[in-house]
Structures are given as C-alpha cells and as structure tokens.
Amino acid sequence: MKINTKYHGEIVVKSEDVLTFEHGIPGFREEKQFVLLPLPENEWFHILQSVVTSQLGFVVTDPFVFYKGYDFELDEASVESLGKPSEKDVQVLSILTVREAFNESTANLQAPIILNLANRKGKQVILTNSDYQTKHLIFTQPAGKKG
After folding, report:
1. 109: phi > 0 → left, psi -120 to 50 → alpha, else beta; which?
2. How far apart are alpha carbons 10 and 18 in whole angstroms?
3. pLDDT level of residue 40 (50, 70, 90 thresholds)
4. How many domains does the chain have?
C-alpha cells in the first residue's frame, strides 16, 4: 500500500510491516497503525510513522544505545495486551524530542514503546514506579535513577 509520510514522502509499505497499536498512542488514541522506517545513513534513529496521518511521525531510537543501565519491568496487563511476547520478539523504543541544537535532543524514558515483532503489536507504556522522566538528554551519561 502507498502512504504519505512526514520525512520520506510517498512510499510503498507492505501490510506485514504495519504495527498495530490497539489503543493508539497517548495523545493520539485514534492512530492505531504505524510503520517503522529507517532514516537513511543513520542506524540509530528511525521514524515511527502513522499509516493514516502523513504528518504524524515520531523520531525514535533504541534507548539501550544511549542508556546502558535503562531497566524497567512491564506490568502484566501490558504483557497480555502485546500477546505475551518472548524476550527475543520484543523491541523497545523511545520517542525523541529533536532540538535544533541536536546535542540538546531528549528521549522519553518514562513512556517506552514496546513492540512484539512476532505479531506486530505495539503499545506505549507509561512507567509509574520509576524515576525516569519524559526528557533525558541523549548525548550525556546515563539517565540512571536520581539519588
């Protein structure tokens, strides 16, 4: 299928590449289908692009690249809603806020996106029992617990 995207223009995506967020993403509850698109010549960042709304594309990254000590536990309801994925089928992403001065860009570690690659289901989980915040600088040392 052809879709219009925020950063890649019009592209063709395969239906098997579509990720389904059954309850949308907080703030975008009506948006239930996304694709993960690579950024050319950049292995760290991707775009989580809405299939329906061309101007809705989130810059995302693997948070473990920037925060080696990043750790959290998923609640049982989230594990269930994702179809009880095995650890090898899980991909974790963080939404970035990209700043004009790129070294001031931040990652949302409080609300990771969890993907079950086996069934293509996704969910943004809001961590409530953690010291992670919505804005952690990505180009500094670990965003470990405050203390």
Report:
1. alpha
2. 16
3. confident
4. 1
63-77 pLDDT, tens digit per residue, is 999 999 999 999 999
Measure the CA–CA gap between 19 and 107, rounded to whole angstroms: 21
Asked if the structure places residue 144 within a domain, the reply is: no
Evaluate whether residue 44 is within a structural domain.
yes
Q: Is 142 among the domain residues?
A: no
Cα radius of gyration rounded to whole Å, the chain: 15
DSSP-derived secondary structure letter, 63? H
Residues spanned by the domain of 85: 2-137
Give a yes or no: residue 58 inside a domain.
Answer: yes
Mean pLDDT for the chain overall = 92
Is residue 42 packed enough to be buried (19+ CB in 10 Å), middle (13-18) or exposed (0-12)?
A: exposed
106 within 8 A of 136, measured Cβ to Cβ: yes
